[in-house]
Design brief:
- The chain has helices at residues 14-20, 102-107, 137-141, 217-224, 229-232, 438-441; strands spanning 10-12, 29-39, 42-49, 112-113, 116-117, 130-134, 150-153, 158-162, 173-176, 245-252, 263-270, 273-278, 290-294, 302-315, 325-328, 335-337, 348-355, 361-369, 379-380, 389-393, 398-402, 410-413, 424-427, 443-444, 448-457, 465-471, 474-482, 487-492, 494-497, 502-509, 517-523.
- The chain is mostly beta strands and 524 residues long.
- It folds into 5 domains: 10-79, no CATH class; 132-167, no CATH class; 245-370, Virus Head Decoration Protein, Chain: A, CATH 2.40.300; 373-404, no CATH class; 410-523, Jelly Rolls, CATH 2.60.120.
- Strands 22, 23, 24, 25, 26, 27, 28, 29, 30 and 31 form a 10-stranded antiparallel sheet that branches.
- Strand 6, helix 3 (137-141) and strand 7 form a beta-alpha-beta unit.
- Mean pLDDT is 82; it is low at 65-73.
Length: 524
């Protein structure tokens, strides 16, 4: 019976063969899987044949036709002797697949048909096209066009052209500006127009040089009316000798127009201009820095002129009389005549009315700010309080403020009566007779603190009684309790009395007659 055999050839990659370096048996074949050549479409691998003695790395590669492998075999370039170093070019061909990325590159190129580009592969060409007239913006944005195409908007009566990539967006459209009306004639002429100087109202113009040009009669008349330097600069020092008024340039940042004739003060600055703000006599901050009068209206956020001193013409003084003195008013920017606003408003003198007229009035401006007490030279009252007096301090040589010295006044009175049991009578603080009616013995008092009173009882009594100082019909906390024994009894507490308060003593008896009250004394 015939036996069947299967022959297996050892195979690995070049790297694996080199790394493992095995011993091939005699006649055993080792095949490299990753080293081959293709000839006429046939893949031929490199291999080695063992001799039973040499390891893989020491064996030579075998080839077909050299006796080792038999057949036609493979001859490697490095094994060829005496081969040429250069080669003349020769026509040859390669399939597209043999050239790396050639197929991908060719797919991005346009195709030719009969030597011409295929029309379907041509890009859109920007040719300006009139897209028609549309009613409004919405209809314009719905048009399908490209850069350069245009349309007419009937709602605006002008043309728009596409200048962007997205015609559905307004930013891709640009309006074409055209004159309001086309030119039909030039100076009444049409066709080839030639204009002479008489055609455009310049018939009297000549080519006289600037140095030889005369001035007009009107100009000469105006110049003759001007003041000469011999008049306003008599000493020829380049400085005007006299000025009717002195103005300054201010900035109006108030948010409203500063009107002609209003009074202003300065507060801060904008750029290099001081800010003008309407002055008022109602407070120190809006009056003490009063600077002048607005010469002409100054709109908001603009510069203008304010006169600080001198004569202002063309003012409305119809509400005043000639010779009136003007003072800063409590209404912002206003003036009042003759009488300054009463305290606690602040007096600021503005000037005099020189002429009364609704449009051609004249005011002499001479602003004088009134002074607060602590603004006067030689006076120092930084923190005055109620009741301070002004005195001269010889050490500092200044007038200063301080609280007045307290003086104590002794008060004496005579009672001379016996309080009856359970009765209430009223006794004057100084002199007079007792009365059951308080108003009969009330007396106007001097201001002060009433305290430290002593009452003398010259005899014993059956019951104690109280004596209370009353102010304007109301008990105070100044009270004395008179016991049953004869002796001197002191008050407790005190009473603060204002100038003119009505005061009296209230004597309230207990259940029994009190001792005889002979007199009292105290201090204020």
């Amino acid at each position: 019976m015939r036996k069947k055999y299967r022959i297996l050839i050892r195979r690995s990659t070049s790297e694996q063969w080199t790394a493992n370096n095995p011993l091939l048996l005699e006649g055993e074949i080792g095949l490299e899987l990753d080293t081959f050549v293709i000839t006429d479409g046939i893949k031929q691998f490199r291999f080695k044949v063992g001799n039973g003695e040499a390891y893989w790395n020491d064996l030579e590669y075998a080839s077909f036709g050299n006796g080792s492998g038999g057949g036609s075999g493979i001859v490697y370039w490095n094994d060829i002797q005496n081969k040429p170093t250069t080669f003349a070019p020769a026509p040859h061909t390669h399939p597209i697949s043999d050239v790396v990325d050639l197929s991908t590159t060719l797919s991005t190129k346009a195709d030719l048909s009969g030597g011409k580009l295929v029309s379907s592969q041509l890009p859109a060409i920007a040719i300006s096209e009139f897209l028609g007239s549309v009613a409004d913006q919405a209809e314009m944005l719905s048009l399908d066009g490209q850069v350069g195409d245009w349309c007419i908007r009937n709602d605006e009566e002008r043309a728009y052209v596409i200048t962007g990539d997205i015609p559905s967006e307004l930013s891709s459209w640009t309006a074409i500006v055209t004159p309001a009306s086309p030119v039909t004639t030039v100076n009444g002429q049409i066709g080839d127009v030639v204009l002479g100087k008489s055609d455009i109202g310049l018939g009297n113009v000549d080519n006289t040089s600037d140095a030889d040009k005369p001035i007009s009669t009107a100009t000469q008349t105006a110049l003759d009316a001007k003041m000469t330097t011999a008049t306003y600069d008599t000493d020829a020092d380049g400085v005007v000798d006299n000025a009717e008024r002195i103005p300054i340039i201010v900035r109006n940042s108030t948010g409203a127009t500063l009107l002609k004739g209003q009074i202003v003060y300065l507060s801060g600055s904008t750029g290099n201009r001081p800010n003008a703000v309407l002055a008022s006599a109602s407070s120190e901050s809006t009056s003490s820095k009063t600077i002048g009068m607005v010469i002409n209206d100054i709109p908001n956020n603009t510069d203008g002129n304010v006169a600080c001193i001198g004569t202002l013409h063309n003012q409305n003084t119809s509400s005043f009389s000639a010779g009136d003195t003007l003072w800063l008013g409590t209404t912002a920017g206003s003036v009042v005549a003759n009488t300054p606003p009463a305290e606690p408003n602040h007096a600021v003198f503005i000037g005099f009315v020189a002429r009364v007229h609704p449009t051609e009035g004249r005011i002499i401006l001479a602003i004088q700010n009134g002074y607060e007490l602590n603004e006067i030279h030689g006076v120092s009252v930084p923190n005055p309080v109620d009741g301070d007096i002004l005195y001269f301090n010889g050490t500092t040589a200044l007038w200063e403020s301080k609280q007045p010295t307290t003086f104590t006044t002794k008060i004496f009175g005579y009672g001379g009566f016996t309080p009856a049991s359970g009765s209430t009578v009223y006794m004057p603080v100084q002199g007079g007779v007792n009365s059951p009616t308080e108003s009969v013995v009330q007396q106007p008092a001097k201001a002060g603190i009433y305290q430290n009173f002593m009452f003398r009882s010259r005899s014993a009594g059956a019951a104690a009684y109280t004596i209370t100082l009353r102010k304007n019909g109301v008990d105070t906390s100044l009270v004395a309790t008179i016991g049953t024994a004869a002796g001197v009894y002191s008050t407790t507490g005190s009473a603060t009395i204002a100038e003119g308060d009505l005061i009296t003593w209230k004597v309230a008896s207990g259940a029994g007659n009190g001792g005889v009250l002979s007199g009292f004394s105290g201090e204020c």
